[in-house]
Write a structure and sequence with these properties.
Number of strands: 19
Largest sheet: 10 strands, mixed
Number of domains: 2
Radius of gyration: 23 Å
Strand content: 35-45%
Oligomer: single chain
Distance between the termini: 64 Å
Number of helices: 4
Helix content: 10-25%
Shape: flat
Structural class: alpha/beta
Order of helices and strands: HHHHEEEEEEEEEEEEEEEEEEE
Strand order of the largest sheet: 5-6-2-8-10-12-18-14-17-16
Length: 301
């Protein structure tokens, strides 16, 4: 009786090696763009390698060919990652500017829905005539949609991109949104794939609702903004929440795959998945935070 020798797939190990190499390069600072954007750009190579293995992988000669092609693909990915200016393909892009006057606006509800790319939220100069100024770069295949109205002094603005997303070359979106410190704002962010950085310190963000999506996320919470309520749903990727020194906080944490790393000196555990500053109950300015760590873990130093 002939016994068939089972040959395991070599695509899985190659994928793990590639991801490990990219993670290592990102940790040492050689990759400045979002790690998750890189995976999105190069994912079609996985389909190519899987197809080659199906066609050629039944014999040892075929597996050698697939292995050589895989090694060349990994090398090409690393080389293009370190030299993004040499990408052999690109897509046309456009930049939209958004500005909303502060006249007649007493408070604002702001909803941001980036797709595949990077989102940065920061602060405007206090003398600005606008409560919001933004520049959003995106592929020409997408259209920036703006839903804006002001009712009884409350501004409601939703920014989103619609259309066909192209995952290649310079197809990532780049959102830069700056807000006026004096305007009380309820902020909702549904992040897509990529990096998210929200620097809310010095802003009057009274409520934050954040879905981190896929990618690394860093949030600096407001200070001296009264009682700030925040709900953060972690997705896939590391999540870091920075609470300004001297700002009391109560943190309800639901840990995910990566677990939670919360500074016990600043935020002692007072219950099951509950952490709280000693002076939280008596403080005027404080942060009430509910967070789901997701996959990748959460850090609150």
């Amino acid at each position: 009786m002939r016994v068939r020798q089972h040959r395991g797939s070599i695509i899985g190990p190659l994928i793990l090696i590639t991801i490990g190499v990219l993670f290592l390069l990102a940790n040492f600072g050689y990759i400045t763009t979002s790690f998750w954007l890189l995976l999105i750009q190069f994912w079609p190579l996985i389909l190519i390698l899987l197809g080659l293995e199906i066609l050629l992988g039944r014999s040892w000669q075929g597996q050698v060919i697939v292995l050589l092609v895989g090694i060349l693909a990994v090398g090409a990915i690393v080389w293009l990652t370190l030299n993004p200016g040499l990408m052999p393909f690109s897509v046309s892009a456009k930049t939209d500017s958004v500005s909303e006057t502060r006249d007649g606006v007493e408070s604002a509800n702001l909803s941001l829905n980036p797709g595949v790319g990077e989102l940065n939220v920061g602060r405007l100069d206090g003398s600005s005539a606008n409560w919001l100024e933004a520049t959003i770069s995106h592929p020409s295949s997408l259209t920036l949609t703006q839903d804006y109205q002001v009712t009884s002094g409350v501004a409601r603005l939703k920014l989103d991109t619609k259309g066909v997303q192209v995952f290649m070359g310079n197809a990532a979106e780049h959102w830069n949104v700056n807000l006026l410190p004096q305007t009380p704002i309820m902020l909702k962010v549904d992040a897509g794939v990529g990096g998210t950085k929200l620097d809310l310190n010095g802003l009057n963000v009274t409520q934050l609702d954040l879905n981190t999506g896929v990618g690394g996320t860093e949030v600096t919470m407001p200070s001296h903004a009264g009682t700030v309520t925040a709900t953060v749903d972690g997705g896939v990727g590391g999540l870091t929440i920075l609470i300004p020194q001297g700002e009391p906080a109560r943190i309800r944490s639901s840990t995910g795959v990566g677990g939670a790393n919360i500074n016990p000196a600043r935020f002692p555990r007072v219950g099951d998945n509950l952490f709280q500053s000693a002076d939280y109950e008596t403080a005027t300015d404080k942060i009430d935070l509910r967070v789901d760590a997701g996959v990748g873990g959460i850090t609150i130093p």
